[in-house]
Write a structure and sequence with these properties.
The complex is a heterodimer of chains A (795) and B (344). Chain A is α+β, with helices and mostly antiparallel strands and 795 residues long. In chain A, strands 29-33-34-40-39-38-37 form a 7-stranded mixed beta sheet, with helices on both faces. The longest helix of chain A is centred in the last third of the chain and has 19 residues, at 771-789. Chain A is elongated and about 125 Å long. Chain A starts with a strand and ends with a strand. Chain B is of the alpha+beta class. Chain B is built from 12 helices and 9 strands. Chain B has helices at residues 2-17, 21-32, 37-44, 53-89, 108-121, 136-139, 171-181, 223-238, 291-297, 313-321, 328-331, 334-337, and strands spanning 126-127, 133-135, 164-166, 187-196, 208-218, 244-251, 254-263, 280-289, 305-312. In chain B, the strands form 2 sheets. Chain B has a 7-stranded mixed beta sheet, sandwiched between helices. A two-stranded antiparallel ribbon of chain B has the order 2-3. In chain B, helix 7 (171-181) crosses helix 9. The radius of gyration of chain B is 42 Å and the shape is rod-shaped. The two termini of chain B are 83 Å apart. Classes of the chains: A alpha+beta (795), B alpha+beta (344). At the A-B interface, helix 8, helix 11, helix 13, helix 14 and strand 29 of A face helix 5, strand 1, strand 4, strand 5 and helix 8 of B.
C-alpha cells in the first residue's frame, strides 16, 4: 500500500513529525514501512521565466537563456531542445543538491551559466509517472506558475511516498481513511475524516434496476445521476492521485478512483447513454469478452460478470467494458458499488492475469460498510466537483450483512496472556485511540469494533492491539513456569545421528539434495517404492515427482564435483523417500577416487566394492547386526544401475536391506560420472524395525590364543565365504577368527584356480590349547576343505 | 698372590678397553671362562700349603666377583651406547607430511539443526517430526488457514491432489503434535524438517528449505515466556551479547504474532551491510498459539495457552557462516561442504 505524507496530512496535523519518524513509528506498531520515496528531490529550486533564448554561438544544441527569477535576471545555458522564450520553467540555482550532484556556477563553452533549467527526470521523478514529452526535455510549467515560487509545490511533487507492507489481516488499510485512523492511533493524534454520511440518501424516483443472480454478489448499490459536467479535476485531487500512482483522466473518472483510494471500496461509473437501466450480476458464462484495455479475455463459468439484457458489460470487480466507459461526451452516469466474493475475484484476476487497483482490493475482503461509504462519498464529490444534478434515489440489492461486534475483555486475562502488568487505564487509553470505545467496569471492559476492523474477533486480538500500541519494549522476558519435561531424541533421531558420527569419522561428507526430481532421474531409482507421488502442477519438468530413491540425486552431486576436477568424493545422504502410500528413511553413499590416502607413503583406502562392503558391515555392526545376521547375496534385483558382477544385495534375515556395488557403465554415462563410482542405498526402516538385542559383556578368555596360517589352491569359482564357513564348522568352539590375508592368481597357480591364504586364531575359554588339540582341528580343516571344495593345501 | 693382583689389574684394564658388547663378551670368556686364568688359579690351589688355601680361595673369589660386576657395569654402559647409535641411525625427516585422515562432516544445515535441537533438548524439549507429503488438513486447515485464504494460493503450494500437498511449513508437524497430545498437557516440542514452496530458485529463494518450529502448550504460558526462550536461543546461536526485539506481525497460527529481530552479530548493533544498517537482523516469526488452533486440536483454550516460533535453518546458517547464496546448500560442492568440519 502506497500512501504519502500529503495523503495522511489531509486527516491530521503531521507538521511536528518528520517522514522518517512517522515511518519508524508505523513500523514499530506493525505497519512495516518498506520504503520512503520523495516524489522529487532537489534544493534551491525556483520558478523562472525565460525572457530571452538565443543559440549558443559555439554549439549546435546549446541555448543561452536570460531567466527572470523574481528577484533578479540571470543567464543560464540550457541544452534542452524544447527551451523557448516565454516559458515558465524549473530553475536549480547554484548550490542546488540534485539526485545526480550539486549545481555550480560555471562557464559552458565560454559562456557563463548561473544554474540549470531542469527536466523532471533530473529531479528524480519516477519515469513511469512521466509522459514522453516530459521525459524528452525540460518541464514547461503552466501560465499560472508564480515566478520565484516553489516549483515542486506547484507541480504537487512536494510529497514523500510511504510504501507500507500490509500484513494480510490489515487489508483495511488499503483504505486511506482506515490508514489515517491507524496512523492517528499510533501517533495519538486526532483524525478528522471527510463527513459524507448520508450524502447519497437523496434522489428522485428511479427506473434503475439492479439485481444479482449469483450468491457471489450479495450486495449491490446502483444510482443514476442524470447530469454531470466533464472537466479536469481540482489540482489537489490530481496531486493525490498522482502520489497514489493513478493517472488523472477527468473529474468523474478521477472521483471514482479517488473514492476507491479513500474508502478501499472500488466503484464503477457507466455512461448512462450507453447502458440499459437494468443491471444483473451473474456467473456461468463460457465466452470471450473484450474489456476496457482492448484485450479479449476467456471467461469461464465461475467468473462473475456485470450484465445487462443478458450481455456482459464488464468483468465484475476487475475491469469494465469499453462500450459504456466515461468520456468527454458523457452527460450522465450510473454508479455501481458492490460487494463481490473476494476468493472468486482473486481466482479470476489471477487466471486472467489482470492486476488493477480495483482487482487488488476486490480480491480481499472489504469491510461491510464500505459500499455505503463509497456511495455517499461519490455523490458528495460529484455534486461538488462535477456539478451533479438530476440525482435519482439509490437502488439497493441485498444488504451489507453487517452487525456491530462487541468483545468482552478482562485486563487481568490480557496481562496473563501477555506476561505484562499494564493498568486498566493504560489499556483503555490505547483502545480509545483505536476508536474501540472501551466501556470500563473494574477489570472488565467491553469494546465496540469499528466496521473496518474485521480482523478483531476475540480477546487475543485485542491483547495484540494493546501491546503493539503500548510497545513491545514493555514486554518482560521470562521462561515458562510449567511441569518438568525431559528433553531427548527418539530412537530414530538418535540412530540418524549415530550414522552421521560413524560416516563422518570415516571421512564421508554429508550431502543434501532436492526431494523433487524429473522423470529422467526417477528412472535411475534404486529399490524404488511405488506408486510414485506426482505433483498436480509442477513448476518445471525437473521437479515433477517426489523421489523414491536418493542415489540418482547423489550421482548428480558426484557429476558436479567431477566436472570441477574433484577426484576423491565420498558423500552420503540420509533422507525420506516417498511413494503414494509409503515413506522410507534411507541412507545413500557414493564414493570414487580414494576415501583416504597418503601418496608418498603409498597408502590409501580406495573407493571399491570391498571398501563399500566393509563400510556397510561396519555400520551394521554398530547397530548390533553383525556379519552373522547380514547376508551379502548376489545382486539379481538391479543389474540395470549396478555392475552385474560387482554388486551385491544386503539382507537382514529375509528382509532386503540394500544394494551396493559398482555403478553400471551405462548409468555412469547417463549421469556423466566416471565408471569407478561405487554406490550404496540402504533402507533404514529395516534396521530400525529389527531387534538387535541388548549390548552384553562377554568375559575375555584368560587363556592364550594361537594363530596358524594356511594357504590353499581352489577353483576360482569357489567363494571365500564358503571356505571360511567350512573352517568355522570344522573348528567349532575354538576358532575365534578367520582372516583372509592373501588372494592370488597367476604364475605358479593353474589358470582356473586361485590361492587363498588365511590366518586362523584358535582360543578356548576353558583351558590353554595343546598342540595336539590344534593339530587335530587343523587336519580336520584340511580334510574338510579338500572333500567339500577340492582345496589343496599349498606346500 | 702377586700374580692374582696383576691378573685383577689386567682384567680391569681389559674390560675398560672394551668398546663393543662382543669384545666385552670375549673379555668375559677370557677371564671368567672355564679355561680362564682364575679357573687355572683354582686348580693351582691344591699345590698350596693347606693353611694358605682359604685366603687364596677367598682372593680368587673376590677377583671373580669383582670382574663379573665390572663386566655387568660395562655391559649396561655399552648397551646404552649401542642403542643410542642405533637410534641415531633411525633418524627420520619430521617435516614430511603426516597421514592426515580425511575427516568428513555433517552438512551445514544438519550442523545448525543439531545445534538448535541440542539447545532445546537441554531446555526439556523433545524433537518431533512428520511427513513431508502432508494433508491439507494439517498443513492449512488446523493451522487456522481455511479454504479461500490467500496463503493457500496455488502459487505458493505444491499440491499433489485436492487433499494432499508437500508441506509448506513445519507448522504441519505442530498441528499433528497438538492433535496427538490433546487434551494432555504439557507439550514441549521442536519440529525440524524440510518444507517446500513454489519459488524459483535464486540466491535468496529455494523451492526446498528447512524450518524448525517450536511449540510449548501448558497452563499459564504467556507471551513473555516466548521472549525469554528466544533470547536464550539467540544468545546460544549468535553469542552472549545478543539481544532480541519483537515487532508486531501476522500469522494465522498465532495471536498476537511477532517478527523477531536479533541485534546484529557482525556489528553489534551499530549498523553494517549484513543488517542493512539497521543494527537488527530478522530471524524468526512467532506468537501465542491462536485459540482456534488449540480448540481444533481438542484443547480448551480457556484452560491452557501456548507459544510457537519458527526459524529458517538456511537463514541461520547463512547468517552464522556468512553464506551468500542459498543454492550452495543443495549443490554439494565438496569444497563447500568441507568448510564445516571444524569445531566451532
Amino acid at each position: 500500500m502506497i500512501t504519502s505524507k500529503k495523503w495522511l496530512s489531509q486527516y491530521m496535523d503531521l507538521s511536528d513529525i518528520t517522514v522518517q519518524e512517522l515511518a519508524d513509528k508505523l513500523t514499530t506498531a506493525g505497519l512495516e514501512v518498506e520504503g520512503l520515496e520523495p516524489m522529487a528531490q532537489g534544493t534551491h529550486l525556483t520558478i523562472g521565466y525565460v525572457k530571452e533564448c538565443v543559440d549558443h554561438p559555439d554549439s549546435d544544441h546549446l541555448h543561452i537563456c536570460q531567466v527572470d527569477l523574481g528577484d533578479k535576471v540571470d543567464q543560464i545555458v540550457c541544452g534542452a531542445p524544447n527551451v523557448q522564450a516565454g516559458q515558465k520553467v524549473i530553475v536549480a540555482l547554484p548550490g542546488a543538491q540534485l539526485p545526480n550532484g550539486e549545481i555550480k556556477k560555471g562557464v559552458i563553452r565560454g559562456v557563463e551559466s548561473n544554474g540549470m533549467i531542469c527536466s523532471l527526470l533530473e529531479l528524480g521523478v519516477d519515469p513511469k509517472a512521466l509522459s514522453e514529452e516530459s521525459k524528452s526535455g525540460i518541464e514547461v510549467l503552466g501560465e499560472d506558475a508564480q515566478i520565484g515560487g516553489d516549483p515542486l509545490a506547484y507541480l504537487g511533487l512536494d510529497d514523500t511516498l510511504i510504501d507500507v507492507g500490509l500484513t494480510p489481516n490489515r487489508n483495511d488499510c488499503l483504505s486511506s481513511w482506515a490508514m489515517a485512523k491507524e496512523t492517528g492511533a499510533i501517533l495519538h493524534k486526532t483524525v478528522t475524516l471527510p463527513d459524507c454520511e448520508g450524502a447519497s440518501d437523496i434522489g428522485t424516483p428511479t427506473q434503475l434496476k439492479v439485481s444479482s443472480a449469483t450468491p457471489k454478489c450479495p450486495h449491490f448499490m446502483g444510482k443514476v445521476i442524470n447530469e454531470v459536467t466533464i472537466k479536469p479535476s481540482p489540482k489537489w485531487m490530481q496531486d493525490l492521485l498522482h502520489a497514489a500512482g493513478v493517472k488523472s483522466i477527468n473529474n468523474v473518472v478521477d472521483i471514482s478512483n479517488f473514492v476507491m483510494l479513500e474508502t478501499g471500496q472500488p466503484t464503477h461509473f457507466y455512461d448512462i447513454a450507453k447502458m440499459h437501466q437494468d443491471i444483473v450480476v451473474a456467473d456461468g458464462f463460457d465466452t470471450t469478452y473484450t474489456a476496457l484495455d482492448g484485450v479479449e479475455y476467456k471467461i469461464e463459468k465461475e467468473d462473475i460478470m456485470i450484465t445487462t439484457q443478458g450481455q456482459p458489460v464488464g468483468i465484475a470487480g476487475i475491469m469494465g467494458g469499453d462500450d459504456s466507459k466515461i468520456d468527454e461526451s458523457t452527460k450522465g452516469i450510473i454508479i455501481e458499488v458492490a460487494t463481490f466474493n473476494h476468493v472468486s475475484i482473486r481466482n479470476t484476476a489471477r487466471r486472467l492475469n489482470i492486476t488493477s487497483d480495483a482487482s487488488v482490493r476486490n480480491a480481499k475482503e472489504i469491510e461491510p460498510m464500505a459500499v455505503k461509504k463509497a456511495m455517499d462519498r461519490c455523490v458528495q464529490l460529484l455534486i461538488e466537483y462535477a456539478d451533479a444534478k438530476g440525482i435519482e434515489e439509490t437502488v439497493v440489492y441485498g444488504d451489507s450483512g453487517y452487525t456491530p461486534v462487541t468483545i468482552q475483555i478482562n485486563a487481568d486475562a490480557i496481562n496473563a496472556h501477555l506476561g505484562t502488568d499494564f493498568s486498566v487505564e493504560e489499556m483503555s487509553e490505547e483502545l480509545k485511540w483505536l476508536d474501540l470505545n472501551p466501556q470500563v467496569n473494574g477489570k472488565d471492559m467491553v469494546v465496540s469494533i469499528p466496521s473496518y476492523r474485521t480482523d478483531l474477533k476475540i480477546q487475543e486480538d485485542i491483547s495484540e492491539e494493546i501491546i503493539r500500541l503500548i510497545g513491545y519494549d514493555r514486554l518482560p522476558s521470562t521462561l515458562p513456569v510449567m511441569p518438568m519435561t525431559v528433553g531427548a531424541l527418539n530412537r530414530r533421531q538418535a540412530m540418524r545421528r549415530k550414522i552421521r558420527t560413524i560416516l563422518t569419522g570415516m571421512g564421508y561428507n554429508e550431502a543434501e539434495t532436492y526431494t523433487l526430481v524429473s522423470a529422467e532421474l526417477l528412472k535411475r531409482s534404486v529399490m524404488p517404492i511405488t506408486p510414485v507421488v506426482e505433483l498436480a502442477s509442477p513448476m518445471s519438468e525437473d521437479r515433477r515427482y517426489v523421489r523414491n530413491s536418493i542415489l540418482p540425486s547423489l550421482l548428480n552431486a558426484v557429476s558436479y564435483n567431477q566436472n570441477r576436477s574433484v577426484k576423491d568424493i565420498s558423500l552420503f545422504e540420509i533422507s525420506n523417500v516417498y511413494a503414494e502410500d509409503a515413506v522410507e528413511e534411507r541412507l545413500a553413499v557414493v564414493m570414487c577416487g580414494d576415501v583416504q590416502k597418503s601418496r608418498w607413503q603409498k597408502l590409501a583406502i580406495p573407493a571399491n566394492f570391498y571398501t563399500m562392503k566393509g563400510l556397510a558391515q561396519s555400520l551394521f555392526n554398530s547397530f548390533g547386526f553383525d556379519a552373522n545376521r547380514v547376508f551379502v547375496k548376489e545382486n539379481t534385483l538391479d543389474t540395470e544401475h549396478f555392475h552385474p558382477y560387482r554388486s551385491a544385495a544386503l539382507y537382514l534375515g529375509n528382509q532386503l536391506l540394500g544394494i551396493f556395488g559398482h555403478i553400471h557403465p551405462q548409468l555412469a554415462k547417463l549421469c556423466d560420472v566416471d565408471q569407478e563410482v561405487i554406490m550404496l542405498e540402504v533402507n533404514l526402516e529395516v534396521l530400525l524395525n529389527s531387534n538387535a538385542g541388548k549390548v552384553k559383556y562377554v568375559p575375555v578368555s584368560k587363556y592364550p590364543s594361537v594363530t596358524r596360517d594356511l594357504a590353499f589352491v581352489v577353483n576360482k569359482e569357489v567363494p571365500v565365504a564358503k571356505i571360511k564357513e567350512l573352517i568355522r564348522k570344522a573348528g567349532k568352539q575354538i576358532i575365534r577368527q578367520v582372516d583372509v590375508f592373501d588372494v592370488y592368481t597367476g604364475e605358479h597357480v593353474d589358470a582356473d584356480s586361485k590361492s587363498i591364504a588365511l590366518s586362523i586364531v584358535f582360543q578356548s575359554s576353558e583351558a590353554t590349547l595343546t598342540d595336539a588339540q590344534i593339530n587335530e582341528i587343523h587336519d580336520k580343516i584340511i580334510a574338510s576343505l579338500e572333500k567339500e571344495v577340492g582345496a589343496k593345501l599349498r606346500g | 698372590m702377586e700374580q692374582l693382583k696383576q691378573l685383577r689389574a689386567q682384567a680391569e684394564q681389559a674390560i675398560q678397553n672394551c668398546d663393543t658388547l662382543s669384545k666385552l663378551n670375549d673379555c668375559r670368556v677370557e677371564y671368567l671362562g672355564k679355561k680362564g686364568p682364575l679357573q687355572e688359579a683354582m686348580k693351582e690351589m691344591k699345590n698350596l700349603d693347606p693353611a694358605d688355601r682359604p685366603a687364596f680361595g677367598a682372593s680368587v673369589n673376590e677377583i671373580k666377583s669383582f670382574i663379573a660386576s665390572l663386566i655387568e657395569e660395562k655391559k649396561a654402559e655399552l648397551e646404552v651406547k649401542e642403542m643410542n647409535e642405533r637410534l641415531e641411525k633411525e633418524k627420520i625427516d619430521i617435516t614430511l607430511d603426516g597421514f592426515e585422515p580425511n575427516l568428513g562432516n555433517v552438512h551445514p544445515l544438519t550442523l545448525v539443526q543439531q545445534e538448535l535441537e541440542d539447545l532445546f533438548i537441554g531446555l526439556g524439549y523433545t524433537v518431533a517430526e512428520g511427513p513431508e507429503v502432508e494433508m491439507d488438513l494439517y498443513n492449512f486447515e488446523r493451522a487456522n488457514i481455511p479454504h479461500g485464504h490467500p496463503a493457500r494460493d496455488m502459487q505458493d503450494t505444491f499440491y499433489i491432489d485436492a487433499e494432499r500437498l508437500l508441506r509448506t511449513h513445519t507448522t504441519a508437524i505442530q498441528t499433528r503434535q497438538l492433535e496427538a497430545h490433546a487434551p494432555k498437557l504439557p507439550i514441549k516440542v521442536i519440529c525440524p524438517g524440510k518444507v517446500y514452496r513454489r519459488d524459483d530458485d535464486d540466491a535468496t529463494h529455494s523451492h526446498q528449505f528447512t524450518q524448525m518450529e517450536g511449540l510449548v502448550v501448558a497452563e499459564g504460558i504467556q507471551l513473555s515466556d516466548l521472549k525469554g526462550t528466544l533470547e536464550f536461543m539467540a544468545k546460544k546461536m549468535f553469542g552472549d551479547k545478543r539481544v532480541i526485539r519483537f515487532r508486531p506481525s501476522y500469522f494465522q497460527f498465532t495471536e498476537p504474532s511477532v517478527e523477531v529481530d536479533v541485534s546484529c552479530h557482525i556489528c553489534n548493533g551499530k549498523g553494517c551491510p549484513v543488517c542493512k544498517h539497521t543494527g537488527w537482523i530478522e530471524i524468526l516469526g512467532a506468537g501465542m498459539v491462536h485459540p482456534n488452533v488449540l480448540e481444533m486440536a481438542g484443547y480448551d483454550s480457556t484452560k491452557c495457552s501456548g507459544f510457537a516460533f519458527g526459524v529458517g535453518v538456511e537463514r541461520v546458517a547463512m547468517l552464522k557462516y556468512g553464506i551468500d547464496d542459498i543454492r550452495h546448500f543443495y549443490t554439494n560442492d565438496v569444497r563447500f561442504l568441507k568448510v564445516f568440519s571444524r569445531f566451532d
